[in-house]
Amino acid sequence: MLEREAAEYKRDEKYLPAFVEDAEQIFPFTHTELWADCDRGELTKFVEGFDIIADKLLKADLATVRNGLDHKRSDSTFPSVEKMGTCVDSLQYALDYADANRYISKIFWRVSRETDRFGRQKSVLRDYRGHDLLIREPTTVYGRPPLNTKEPILVAPGNLVGLPNSELIFQVIESSQYSNYWDDYPRRRKTPDPVQDLSAAARQASSDAEELV
């Protein structure tokens, strides 16, 4: 992605929203692929972090260690204590790094919020391990949903857009038999067409009259 040109993925102007020229809030998604809208510096850091995780997973050599522990192994193929220790340490580092930097999707809940006299807000989000993430508002970009204490959210790694207070945040919507059943509710009422209704009523009246005759 870092070697590709973003210009060829520029979105056609007719598909851009009317508020794209708004001076107060920025609409950053002007390309057809997300990587093309990312700040190059932030995208570089994201790729470097991914390389760290991949490198640690490869150094763990998990397949060799696991196969060496098989009950039909020979004594010569049983992994050494050092190799098993390296495997565990490398896997633990990779998973901890991926979790801490949000490469692994995880749920956050907002636990507190502070607002100063200028309307600026600081929200503390907490994950399943009790680790906190500070999110500042108001955001400078269009499209980020407001934070809610009653709903879980996902936060993308880093700040890919590269603008102040512009971390990509996603609401979590659970898919279940219950949510699928009520997916179309509440349904929006449709305003009846008076012309069609009068025509239908006239046809029904004519039909009733014929039956009486």
Q: How many strands? A: 5
The helix content is: 25-40%
Q: Taking Cα atoms only, what radius of gyration do you get, to the nearest Å?
A: 28 Å
The N- to C-terminal Cα distance equals 79 Å
Strand % is 5-15%
Largest sheet: 3 strands, antiparallel
- The secondary-structure class comes to alpha+beta
Oligomer: single chain
Number of domains: 2
Averaged pLDDT: 84
Stretches where pLDDT falls below 50 for ≥5 residues?
Answer: none
What is the N-to-C succession of helices and strands?
A: HHHHEEEEEHH
Supply the number of helical segments: 6
Global outline: extended
The strand order across the widest sheet is: 1-2-3
Fold blueprint:
Blueprint: H1 34-37, H2 40-60, H3 62-68, H4 81-100, E1 109-115, E2 121-126, E3 132-137, E4 153-155, E5 169-171, H5 177-181, H6 194-212
What does this structure look like?
- Helix 2 (40-60) packs antiparallel against helix 4.
- This protein folds into 2 domains: 7-100, no CATH class; 109-171, no CATH class.
- Helices cover 36% and strands 12% of the residues.
- It has 213 residues and is an alpha+beta fold.
- The mean pLDDT is 84.
- It has helices at 34-37, 40-60, 62-68, 81-100, 177-181, 194-212; strands spanning 109-115, 121-126, 132-137, 153-155, 169-171.
- The chain is built from 6 helices and 5 strands, in the order H-H-H-H-E-E-E-E-E-H-H.
- Strands 1-2-3 form a 3-stranded antiparallel β-sheet, with no helix packed on it.
